[in-house]
Amino acid sequence: MKLRNDPDILIVGSGVSGLLAAVGIAKASAQRERALNVTIIEKRSRIGGVMASPVSDLKFTYSFKHSHREGLTGLVGSKVAEQLAFKLRNILHEILPHTATEDGLTIPTHYIPTKIKDKIQNLPRVSIIERPLGCIEYIGTEYGPEIVARIASSLSEKGVRFLTKTSLDRVELASGKILTRISHNSDELISLKPRFLILAMGIGGQMQFFNQLKNLKVTMSGNEVDIGIKVEMPWTSVSDIASNIGCNPKLVFRNSIGNIRTFCFNYRGFVTCYRFHRHLMTVDGYSILARQSSNTPFSLLAGFKPKSETPEASLGLVMRLMKRVIQIGHGQPLLQLFGDLERSTITSASTLRNNKVKPTLKHFAMSKLYNVLPGADSFVDTLHEMDQICPEVAQKSTLIYFPQTAWGPLKLQVSSCMETSVENIFAVGEFCGQTQGIVESAASGLICGTEVGTRLTAA
Predict the structure, then answer these.
(1) Chain-centre distance of CA 93, in angstroms?
(2) How do strand 38-42 and strand 220-222 relate by DSSP bridges?
(3) What is the signed CA dihedral for 236, 241, 246, 250, rounded to 10 degrees?
(4) How many independent structural domains does the chain possess?
(5) Do 248 and 345 fall within a single domain?
(6) Residue 326 lies inside a defined structural domain of this protein
(7) Is 137 exposed, middle or buried (0-12, 13-18, 19+ CB in 10 A)?
(8) Which of 104, 152, 237, 392 is least enclosed, having the fewest CB within 10 Å?
(9) pLDDT digits (tens, 9 = 90+) for 67-112
């Protein structure tokens, strides 16, 4: 395979942040006489990343005000972040399939009932994060591939080229110019000299590309890493706070390890496993309109910091944990009944077969989570506290999966337009370690693409 010439812009990763970076470039350089010379490479055989996988609910939260971390708001300011959120909403509405608009976007934002708020007020260590009305839209996992296909088709018409099964192997700087080497189909090596490089490789890319970032002298630090569990129970057990497919209530429980928060309710949904990297996986969940399970999975997450704020320390924290999980589970995520977690006994196959709650995840290994879950006692206490809000949560039959992870171990120093400390090299989405979720990732790509397109037009 040969490229006709060096691309002006090379985007590494075709997830939502990489795709929206290309959208931003196209919009910002619409007045250029020359066609776009943008190449997007993707190591997998298909484009779209998480958005095209049965991993995400595709709940789009168009507000960053109530995030538990500064995230994108810390980079661009709250006013610009909110403007970006609704600009992004308009862009996505232009490309959403008609059926997704009808089925998904009509679901209203969820209110937490007064009776639940009253219960929480009587629990001094529990609080609610309430979001503005209308800021959450449920699109639906089943529409992810079609959304990706529409974006890709629009970009291809504007001259953007996609290369799948293609990885970034090396980046160097020579006299201020960017030199890259990419491999296609794992064997064919191609050298490219893009004017701009946009890294959108997600959390797994951080681990794969860490040494390259060091060699490039990209300024970065260690990140606080979110680690926790995926909880699965009958949907009726949490129906008071998650009563439809658009619900995603945020509860925060204060305890000895800091704050544990609820995350990603998947109403009558399914648990799945996503592998960022050969040494990094996470259990996650999704819901679809056309098919429902008898369960509602949700996540409980807590932030963990290494003793040192160096990137090596954060990376080491994650690698040690994952190595232990992979050894115990032989490469599969771990499962234990809540009753067995409290008794510190391994759940047997016969116990699981006869259990009231049936797992929706197909492949897992049963183990004692106390051996690997940091702050296990605090997670147990949180489930008991949650049981006071929604009775039947802390049941012996409740399923507990591990690991659930979020936020990459590295935090790259980026400007308000997502440029790293190295000129013309940008980092977007979860690769930069400063955004989380589909909307923040997409918004970071849009910011970056707008800046790069503007510079390209000016040049």
Answers:
(1) 21
(2) unpaired
(3) -130
(4) 2
(5) yes
(6) yes
(7) buried
(8) 392
(9) 556 778 888 887 888 788 878 888 877 776 554 444 444 444 455 7
